[in-house]
Specification:
This protein has one domain (18-116, 123-244). It contains nine helices and four strands; from the N terminus they run H-H-E-E-H-H-H-E-E-H-H-H-H. The protein is mainly alpha-helical. The strands form two sheets. The chain has a two-stranded antiparallel ribbon with strand order 1-2. A two-stranded antiparallel sheet has the order 3-4. The protein is globular, with a radius of gyration of 22 Å. The longest helix has 23 residues, at 21-43. The protein has helices spanning 3-10, 21-43, 87-95, 97-106, 137-157, 169-186, 189-196, 206-219, 222-244, and strands at residues 48-49, 52-53, 160-161, 164-165. Helix 2 crosses helix 4 (97-106) and helix 6 packs antiparallel against helix 9 (222-244).
Length: 254
């Protein structure tokens, strides 16, 4: 083996551009979201400002909720009520094919970028625990569907003030958030499988075929929906938190 080949093998990359900016920015964005969620749960307060309920707490199932959607869990639950449900949408994102590629590259540097060597000496893939849990992605999708239904329920409820219809800035915030979360879930590969999987011929199931085609078109923008919905759910919680603690006043449009 000549010296030139040895040099190429030992070098991490021959790229001279700033390839590290993208994985670094991604790592910062994901870490910031995780830190915000942890902080919001630690507060365990200011997640409800009538008629707005934070999407982190939807549905609120504990009797100690500031606004219980359904008190299925009694006062014995002393942890933040969001933990009863939040593990479902977080599990969906953590096992999402796009997010897996994103945080493998940004946190594990596997690989950090195209034409850049992996940080690890050997590649293990997802054959070992805990990465084998990534196979639960489709089940997180199924569990997320009813949760998404409650998010829409809260979005519509945000247009009623003291029993009367109205529109506030928070109403629009929750409506946009529900729409983006729906686009993220609908563009997921597990949704494509639910629409068109286990069929010998799509032409024999025209309704599922049409649904599969629509979801496939949405899947082309799955990355964009992933990031937009990640930002919207955090901003929706932040807006409601600021209104609930009195830091800002909800602008009543109608």
């Amino acid at each position: 083996m000549n010296a030139k080949v040895l040099l190429l093998r030992d070098q991490r990359s021959l790229r001279t551009d700033r390839w590290w900016i993208a994985p670094l920015a991604t790592a910062i964005a994901l870490a910031a979201f995780v830190a915000y969620v942890a902080w919001a749960l630690w507060q365990d307060a200011n997640y409800y400002a009538a008629p707005y309920l934070s999407p982190f707490y939807s549905p609120c199932l504990s009797a100690r909720c500031a606004h219980a959607t359904a008190a299925l869990v009694g006062d014995w639950w002393t942890l933040p009520p969001a933990l009863l449900v939040l593990w479902v949408p977080l599990g969906l994102r953590a096992t999402c094919y796009y997010y897996r590629k994103t945080y493998y590259r940004s946190f594990f540097l596997s690989p950090a970028a195209c034409a850049v060597r992996d940080a690890a000496a050997s590649y293990q893939g997802e054959a070992r625990f805990p990465l084998t849990l990534q196979n639960l992605h489709r089940y997180f999708f199924y569990l997320s569907v009813p949760v998404l239904g409650f998010v829409w329920h809260d979005a519509f409820a945000a247009f009623r003030f003291d029993g009367h219809p109205g529109i506030g800035a928070g109403s629009l915030v929750l409506l946009v958030n529900a729409a983006l979360l729906t686009l993220f879930a609908a563009s997921c590969n597990s949704c494509r499988h639910a629409c068109g999987g286990h069929l010998k011929s799509l032409h024999e199931a025209p309704v599922r075929h049409r649904a599969w085609r629509i979801v496939s078109r949405l899947n082309e923008r799955h990355r964009e929906y992933a990031w937009l919905s990640l930002a919207s759910v955090a901003l929706a919680d932040l807006y409601i938190r600021l209104v609930a603690c009195g830091a800002i006043t909800d602008w009543r449009i109608l």
